Amino acid sequence: MAQAAAVAKPPAPPRRRRASATPRRLPYLLIAPAALLMLGFIAYPVLSVFYYSLRDYNPTKPWRNGWAGLGNFTQAFRHDPQFWDTLTFSAKWVVVEVGLQLLFGLALALIVNQTFVGRSLGRALVFSPWAVSGVLTSAIWVLLFNSQTGISRYLADMGLGSYGTSWLSDTSTVFPAAVVADLWRGVPFFAILILADLQSVSRDLYEAAEVDGASRLKQFRHITLPHLKDAIVLSTLLRAVWEFNNVDLLYTLTGGGPAGETTTLPLYIANTSVDAHNFGYASALTTVAFVILLFCSIVYLRLSKFGGDEK
Known about the structure:
Largest sheet: 2 strands, antiparallel
Number of strands: 2
Helix content: 55-70%
């Protein structure tokens, strides 16, 4: 009987092994090296800029280095008219460039989104300027604006304008010339992002609108634009930040001239730090630019209701 009872007794359940914490920590361990590198290459420079913005730091005049407190910021806002001039031009540059790039980029995206012979080649031609580096773009347009061998020479041969005209040396033409040069490279950025979002619009919406008698303009207003809202908001914000920090193109084309007409705030910061070696004051200007961009980005995202549903 005892043996039968022992046989009938169900086996004891197996003991649960304590779950190892290693599999759960493994993803964090794998990304830890990259995270540490990003922390070192991003966080440290940012914090060092904030630190040097509160100091007088000029490697060529070490006897003047020391704690400045808010003196650099007071110098910028109260005693440096060039700071306000460059900040005003930066705002003008961003508004004009981003507005025109969005307009032309949207138009190109709508065109290459249609079905036509050679569409693949057309898309490649539209997007190709974006693959060119900023320095190479500047070099191309420097040659195009050259007064002896550039566009102005050929226009003068056709009786339009005079020989020897330098658009980059004239205060009345330097801004439009710089805008055109940057448009050539900036428009494909908007075209790429907007076209990618256009590919996800259902054709059923347009077919239903056509059945209801909606015109192309109404379809664009009530179907296309609402669908592209987030893509437009994100692309304009990213491009505005990039255009505000644009240095390579303007530095190569004009060097900030003539007479400082095309000097943006980042270009002024570069000249202050690299040429004048006044790294403390340049760090203060960089901090001001960072705060301005952060504030404008937050306000823009709040006003545009990025990521929210249309009501």
